[in-house]
Amino acid sequence: MRYADVIEIPTYDRPLHHDLATVDAVSDLVQAQQRKGDLYLRVSRGPDDVHTGSRHPESGYPLPGLACWPLVPEPWWPAGTSTWIARQLVSHSYLLSERAQAWVLTGPVVGRGADGEPLVAPANPVALVGHGAFLEAESVYAAWRCRDVR
Question: Pfam families in the record, alphabetically (predicted)?
Fold first, then answer.
């Protein structure tokens, strides 16, 4: 097998999801989760990933689903859904760039990535995550981190 056979550059010629809503508040994500069920955060070129797939960044191997992060809090998390979502946005905001945007999706978990992240397929795009949601997340998460834990 040649290196070129393993590393395939995906094409992005499918139509963009311009009809997706943009959420600009953490509370909008909480409401979306209440309506849609399990939501996941993904930072990538965009929702057209549902057509091109996801690859392991080191090996280039195709993954069975899109790598993402859960927006549903773990059972051990006592701080609530808003704080969990804010934490996820803050923790992954470093991935944002001109070529990478945040969006949320639903779908069944079909496996785990090399770092334990859920792999979702088939993925259903729900919304784009706007700048306002990240600004609010910074505030919510900073307030939680500065709480009195006596």
Answer: DUF6098 (PF19593)
